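Reading group handout, session on sequence-to-structure problems. Before we discuss, look at one worked example. The prompt was deliberately terse, the way you'd type it at a terminal:

> structure DUF1244 domain-containing protein

The input record follows.
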Amino acid sequence: MPHLDDATRTELEAAAFRRLLRHLDEHKEVQNIDLMILADFCRNCLSKWMVAAANERGVELDYDGAREHVYGMPYDEWKAKYQQEATPEQQAAFAARQAAKQEAPSE
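And the output record:
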């Protein structure tokens, strides 16, 4: 996207991020552990990345506030309504994913 100016690129990236949040909100059945197994990130990661981006820009944003934005509600409420206990298969797949990351050569 080198033909785009910085402001336009930032607007497009922000719009895509908002769409990602809507998509995740529309698919609450997709558990964070599933995201971690398949894509190595989850809703909590997005929240942490938002906090890190805010810190880099000298903007105050706490983790709970970022999670509420990402989840569309307080995290404890989302967790009570939508989070399921991880199955033994999910736990094993997550452990295998983490082990593979540890064994992968550094880039």
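Points for discussion. First: The chain is about 70% helix and 0% strand. Second: The longest helix spans residues 6-26.
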